[in-house]
Amino acid sequence: MSSVITQFLSQLAHEPALLVTVQSTRGSVPREVGAWMAVFAHSTLGTVGGGHLEWQALPHARERLAQPEFVEEVVSYALGPTLGQCCGGAVELHFQRVTAADTERLAQQLGKELMPVAVFGAGHVGRALVQVLATLPMDVTWIDSRDGIFGSDAPAHVHCEQSAPVQSAVVQLAPQSRVLIMSFSHGEDFDLVAACLTRQRERADLSFIGLIGSKTKWATFRNRLLQRGFGEGELQHITCPIGIDGIADKRPAVIAVAVAAQLLRATAG
Questions:
Q1: 75 DSSP β-pair partners
Q2: Which pLDDT tens digit goes with each residue over 74-99?
Q3: Which strand (E) or helix (H) includes residue 59?
Q4: I want to staple 182 with a disulfide (CB 3.0 to 4.6 A). Which of 90, 148, 155, 212 is the partner?
Q5: Which of 110, 145, 172 is the last residue of a domain?
Q6: 158 and 203 part of one domain
C-alpha cells in the first residue's frame, strides 16, 4: 500500500473519519473519479482537488463526522464562479463515515487503485527509487538476493523480499506489474530479464520491464537473449536504458525521479 493509505488506516484504528471520494465528474475538474480525502476531527489525508471545492468539502465532512448516526451521502458541486474556481466542470463527492471496522474493506478498495511495481536491486539507485515510488500511488515490492540488505530505512509499507536465486521471484509477481531491474551484478540482471521474458511468453501480463544500463549493455544482453532463443519481437518488451529522455545526470536521486516519471507517463499513455 502507499504511504498515505497506510497512514489513513493506521489513524482510523484509533478514531473515525469521513471518507470523501470523487464519485463522478463532468467537464474540466481538478481530480479524477476515485480520488479521495480522509477527514478526521483534527487532520486530513489525501485530496479531492484542493481549492475552494476542498475548502467547502472539509467543513461539510467535519459536520457529518460529528453526527454519529450519519452514514453516507452524495453532494454535487459546480466548479464555476460561485465556487471560486474557473474549471467550469462539475463534481459529485461521496461522503461516508468509516471506522476501524472498515479497515480491511478500505485496504482492498483503495489498494486496487495502486500500480504494482517490482524493484530488483537494493543498491544506491534501487534504494533512491524505492523512496520515490513509496510516495506515489504504487504498491512496491523490493527484491534482492542478498540477506539483510534493505536496512531500517525501508518504507514501512514497501514489501521487502530476499530471493535466492533472485529470478525465482519473477513468477510470483502480481499481474500487470511494472518491473525495474537494477541488481548488483550484470549476471543477475541478465537472469532477471530472461525470467521476465519467459513470463511474458507464458502469460503476457507484465506491463513494463525496465533494465538499468547503457545501450552497450543492452546490445550485449540482446545478443545473448537471441542465442537463448528469444525472438526480436519478444525483446521489444525490454526498455533499456530506463528513465525519461533528456536527463543525463547519473546521481541516484535524479535517476529515481526520471524512472518514476517514465512509469507514470507509460501508464497515462
A1: 93
A2: 999 887 655 555 556 789 999 999 99
A3: helix 51-65
A4: 212
A5: 110
A6: yes
